[in-house]
Fold this protein.
Amino acid sequence: MIPIEVFRSILERPDPALLEKMTKEATRLTRQFFGRQIALYTPLYLDNHCDGGCTYCGFNRNRDIERIKLTSEQIATEMEIIAGWGIDHILLLTGESPQSAPISYLLAAVQLAHRFFSAVSLEVYPLEEDGYRQLVRAGADGVALYQETYDRTRYRHLHPCGQKADFDYRYRAPERMAHAGMRRLTLGVLLGLTDPAADLHALFSHLEALQYDFPGIEYQLAFPRLQPLAEDKPAFAAVSDRQLLSAIALARLLFPRVAISLSTREPAAIRDLALESAVTCISAGSRTDVGGYATAAMAPVQFAVRDRRSVVEIVDMLKVRGFNPAYTDWRSLGDYDE
Amino acid sequence: MTQDDVLVIAGRSIRNRFFLGTGKFSSRELVGEAIRAAGIEVVTVALRRIEPERRSESILHQIPAGVVRLVNTSGARDAQEALRLARLARATGLGDWIKVEVVDDSKYLLPDNDETVRATELLTADGFVVLPYIFPDLYIARRLQRAGAAALMPLGSPIGSNQGLQTREFIRILIAETGLPVIVDAGLGAPSQAAESMEMGAAAVLANTAVATAADPVQMARAFSLAVAAGRAARLAGLPPPGLPSASSPMSGFLTQP
């Protein structure tokens, strides 16, 4: 990996001419390897029970919020709505609670999802290798797991309890996924928890090591940026729009063929800009409250959705800007079991 | 070039020797336009990446009737996965023409030649028309020929790299030493490289990135098609051997006679 000083200079002492050059090269590489196709997916929150005490998160166990876990009927209702929008790739999410959302619950959700979608990914607490293997067999193609921060001291401070307190168990999870045969891994840090230059350097080094050890996996990077809950603001390092876009461009330069996603945590203007340079995968129509698609109720959210465009609006935007929205992107091989 | 110059694969006569990949385009409609404008007769589609035909936005609706849909198994990491994909292609009415693509490297997308041979054996036994995508290796090519491959699809350079014929000398060997049609696939970044492939004796050329990511993909599809035809015509015409210019006159022959 290139030295951390380069990250630091790009993020902290940016030279406008260099950034312009970086963005141009990132755009060129993205078009070369991904063309103008943009993959679409929608997240579905299944359960907001959580054992974690992540001080920055809306689902933190210490927060006095309504806890909801969807039944299989409710999950099917949510899925039917999302599939009705034309979405073909679903991302299933839970809080960090193996007690509330055990493997059996995840397996049932994955199997159910295959009635509606050709690709199913998960963003759940880290599992044992065998857990991942069961998910693969049930038809899961991908897992997103963010280390949040690679700074161990900061990590310990921010994640005081639950399974999530174990840095190494989380850090080694991608290896367990790879051994279990998971096809697509999404890595990321939660930008804003600590020094972004150090975290991005560690993240990219982690990805580089995984690519070396497990070359067959399809890797993806995500760039979630913390929106601190009002009372927490002073505790976190704000990452500016410019820093975020520079980080994304840098990722493309270092990993030309790796897919990059940007969620609805970001406002429409930022997502649209990032699509031009490096982002190849976006969510659409997202709700981050459990049961939100069917009820449209004001249930607690994990983070506020800032890009509130519907799937139709996102698809229209893509077409107007000369992008080709891809609904089916690496359809699950699990579909083809005879 | 005469009208009789056709490439025959599995009993199917193909006149336009430029095959087009359908990924990376800025819209599905543009794929259809490029196919029509360039008179494309064979296109590749990635089974795992296309919307099924029942969906209105499926790329399959853009492919005119009569165009061969060569289904690639991209996303398969081993022979068994390639077989499952091929069977699904057949079951969903996409036909029997399969470009076997077995890749277990996400950085360079280089094909796994061993698994490709295995996949070819499995697929030909199941009655598929198999065109394996390979790194150009003579021993692998011979094994594929024995396994019943309908053609060979060696890469010119890594997929999407636009680096041209980096494997030129090895592709020459495949052309000289196997009886199979050799279709240069992957890495070609310009029509001139396609023409060169045909001059070398390739039976056809496949490109995607160079067309789909051009400023005007429809015109670029035509340009590739023309270059492939020109290269083919040159091959048939018999290219003069390269070398230093030498004087030739009516006297030359006379002087050397005994």
About this structure: The mean pLDDT of chain A is 90. The interface with chain B takes residues 31-37, 86, 88, 118, 183, 211, 215-219, 257-258, 319, 322-324, 326-331, 333, 335-338 of chain A (CB under 8 Å). The radius of gyration of chain A is 19 Å. Chain A has 13 helices and nine strands.
